[in-house]
Specification:
Number of helices: 13
CATH superfamily of the largest domain: Type I PLP-dependent aspartate aminotransferase-like (Major domain)
CATH class of the largest domain: Alpha Beta
Strand order of the largest sheet: 2-8-7-6-5-3-4
Radius of gyration: 21 Å
CATH topology of the largest domain: Aspartate Aminotransferase, domain 2
Bound molecules: pyridoxal-5'-phosphate
Helix content: 40-55%
Shape: globular
Largest sheet: 7 strands, mixed
Order of helices and strands: HHEHHEHEHEHEHEEEHHHEEHEEH
Number of domains: 2
Strand content: 5-15%
Number of strands: 12
Distance between the termini: 55 Å
Structural class: alpha/beta
Amino acid sequence: MKLSHRITHLTGGGSDGWDVFYRARRMIAEGQAVTELTIGEHDIRTHPSILAEMDRSARSGHTGYAMVPGTDLLRDTVAARIQLRTGVPTTRNNVLITPGGQAALFAAHMAACEPGDVGLYLDPFYATYPGTIRGAGAVARAVKTRAEDAFQPNARLIAEKADGAASLLINTPNNPTGVVYSRETLNEIANLCRQRDIWLISDEVYDTQVWDGEHISPRVLPGMVDHTLVIGSMSKSHAMTGSRCGWIVGPEEAIQHLINLATHTTYGVPGFIQDAASYALTAGSDLEEEVAAPFRRRRELAIQVLSKQNTVGLIPAQGAMYLMLDVRATGYSGEGFANALLDSHSIAVMPGESFGDAAAGHIRVAMTIDDERFEAALKTVCEFATYLANRSAAE
Ligand SMILES: Cc1ncc(COP(=O)(O)O)c(C=O)c1O
């Protein structure tokens, strides 16, 4: 039996730098103690009050098919939230509820790209981006951002690669770099998208986790309402990763077609999950703050630890739950460093290379373990890097 090219070539093949992650998981399965600073999963679980609402809704019968576009309640809630946060008039007709941000990313590319069109994305990137673009039948083309620009995108570099592009996928606050795009960056990107008639797909799943600067949704920029598809999610803001609830916000016409796509693919999101999401989004900012607070604290701890040495560089950690650390002074690649760190200290981090070439020589540290262990692990990372740097200088 022949499988389609689309499915067999989804992930692009080759080493993707995830070997360290799988090796750490094997070590844990074999009973070894490993400090895992790899993936973006909170160390706290969904708040009991959200679970109580899920339970209430399910028991009261909301377990059948839910409305495919999303319940009126959740679509209205998301629309009101977006309008409040951005000032852009938004109604339920601008909102499609999806099974998480990931499904929204796929659907947005299905809406934006004809088969064979180019879908641009920025390197370093969240692991699923190129496969998502390819899965939608488009050609995934990376544009590098640069460590020396603190990984802020450069519109000129994007323009150089924009021939044939139907979409540009951006992510602020950014995974994996922790960078929040400046207004200037976003204005330049928006100008490019308008001039070249490119859809801007704006992944904003970390919009409640901003430590420095402000989160700007490019949908607010002049002329961008009709050029932007915003991706949102309950996963990161409310520690609801397993609930699979997210959304796309965009022009009404695009949402109408996206509802058709949902009818023929996901058929919606469970009603009791949507009720829990509506509750969580209207319960005030405390729930979000409770989820964000540990990362805010650990980022402060990290800045202190890193300020006491000068081997490991910290890319300005402005948002999201990760730190991008520059380990080039050790003479190691990100992958080499991550492997050596796992072997010698049983600490697992993600090599920068697993997020694209632009993050080579870096490692990504997820701030997802308790403060004490996190601080101790970071100190070890720095000491180990200093040891390696001194050793390579002596050779
Ligand atoms: C940048 C980014 N976008 C989207 C997602 C997908 O999130 P979800 O599908 O859980 O909403 C993630 C998850 O880690 C992410 O980091």
